[in-house]
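To the wet lab folks,

You asked to see what we're planning to order before we commit. Fair enough. Below is the target structure as tokens, and below that is the sequence we designed to fit it. If anything looks off to you, flag it before the synthesis order goes out.
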């Protein structure tokens, strides 16, 4: 950024403070964000779209007694901010009383220190730099007679929270992402993705190579006979499972309503001791904010500790309701979900993918899943399909490429049969804007129910 230009978190804090000065209530909270993003998209081995966007937003929460009202705007002039504050106050006056509301959170005296992360300069990862990365990814497919499609994108956002109890939290977060789908004329396809806080670390050549090799090996795919098979799941597939665990099981609201397996099995040795799942925005590889959307510092939470369901994440409301510590996992108010983990990770094991495959007599290797949905939140019963690189494992090696297959499987039951955890982890972006830091997994049983044709 040029000299004299405020950092994104400075701009967000200034915006939040301007709105805060215009709001009126017993308590007031302002959440502000200032974001820049850019996207380069390619298909048919050529770039066909390049876009950039700037956006600002302000959300104001006004509290009157135990009534709350929220209003939001993407206009940042004083008149627009004043109207937004007035709407929030009017909403609070019309809202029902909530006797459980504990008030807005106060500053935390001994907050965990935020991690030092690479300085993210969006201008340095400009259209030319993204085009170079896209070209390197495409080349790996084009040189093999394959067709590549995908994206190279980056964003940097400043987020600030100010409230009437003294919270003043502000931070800048940045991330770059690349995805590639490589396709063969005969129907084979391969997928690869990358996510990180430092765009200079994007391994464009190897990313394109990984997708192209999968596409080549996927040609001539054959249907999989329905049944229960041992599986090796690559990190992209594992990320889906972990993301749905976070959405269905690791939040305080689902725990309170006993719609979470954690509530039913807390403290039990439910999984092998090798499995530990955490939420940790402060991990050096994570890209999340160091505080939540109430301005409370995020804390590392062991959700499954050595195979035992151990905890759920909370915000100020659910911490008070459950009599637990506030772990700093509030989403922007209002939301119907309660607090959720956004920086999930599985602690690494000591196996390589080759070793996992070698240990299976007959099973399936899955690169990623697609169109996954929840059928039962308590058991985390999911249904979906494989996509872009599934292979039969026979006698400890990959053999036939497999056509896309449907599955119906409880993640809880599958993890009970955890055989091995990979030693290498990848940061994978999720649908909700969060991320997961996950290894490959070998599982003893996964139920495939048919083909997608």
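Sequence we intend to order:
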């Amino acid at each position: 950024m040029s000299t004299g230009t405020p950092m994104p978190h400075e701009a967000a804090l200034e915006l939040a403070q301007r709105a805060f000065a215009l709001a009126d209530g017993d308590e007031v909270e302002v959440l502000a964000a200032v974001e820049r993003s850019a996207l380069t998209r390619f298909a048919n081995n050529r770039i066909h779209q390049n876009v950039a966007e700037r956006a600002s937003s302000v959300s104001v929460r006004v509290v009157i007694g135990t009534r709350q009202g929220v209003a939001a705007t993407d206009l940042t002039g004083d008149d627009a901010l004043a109207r937004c504050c007035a709407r929030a106050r009017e909403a609070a006056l019309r809202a029902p009383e909530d006797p459980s509301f504990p008030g807005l959170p106060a500053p935390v005296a001994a907050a965990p220190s935020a991690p030092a992360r690479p300085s993210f300069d969006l201008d340095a990862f400009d259209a030319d730099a993204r085009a170079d990365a896209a070209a390197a990814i495409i080349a790996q497919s084009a040189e093999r007679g394959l067709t590549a499609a995908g994206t190279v994108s980056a964003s940097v956002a400043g987020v600030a929270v100010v409230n009437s109890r003294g919270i003043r939290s502000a931070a800048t977060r940045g991330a770059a992402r690349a995805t590639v789908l490589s396709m063969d004329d005969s129907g084979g396809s391969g997928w690869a993705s990358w996510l990180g806080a430092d765009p200079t670390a994007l391994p464009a050549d190897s990313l394109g190579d990984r997708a192209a090799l999968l596409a080549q090996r996927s040609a001539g795919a054959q249907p999989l006979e329905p049944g229960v098979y041992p599986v090796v799941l690559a990190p992209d597939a594992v990320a889906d499972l972990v993301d749905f665990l976070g959405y269905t099981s690791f939040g305080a609201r689902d725990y309170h309503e006993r719609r979470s397996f954690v509530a039913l099995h807390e403290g039990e040795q439910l999984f092998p001791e090798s499995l530990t799942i955490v939420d940790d925005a402060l991990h050096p590889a994570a890209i999340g904010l160091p505080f939540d959307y109430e301005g409370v510092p995020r804390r590392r939470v062991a959700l499954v500790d050595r195979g035992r369901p151990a905890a759920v994440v909370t915000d100020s409301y659910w911490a008070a309701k459950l009599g637990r510590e506030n772990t700093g996992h509030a989403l922007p108010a209002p939301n119907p979900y309660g607090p959720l983990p956004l920086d999930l990770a599985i602690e690494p094991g000591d196996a390589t993918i080759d070793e996992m495959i070698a240990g299976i007599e007959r099973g399936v290797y899955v690169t990623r899943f697609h169109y996954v949905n929840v059928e039962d939140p308590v058991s985390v019963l999911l249904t979906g399909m494989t996509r872009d690189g599934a292979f039969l494992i026979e006698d400890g090696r990959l053999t036939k490429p497999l056509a896309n297959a449907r599955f119906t499987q409880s993640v809880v039951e599958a993890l009970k049969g955890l055989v091995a955890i990979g030693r290498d982890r990848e940061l994978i972006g999720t649908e909700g804007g969060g991320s997961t830091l996950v290894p490959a997994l070998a599982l003893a049983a996964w139920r495939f129910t048919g083909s997608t044709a």
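Structural context that might help your review: The radius of gyration is 23 Å. The mean pLDDT is 95.

Thanks,
Computational group
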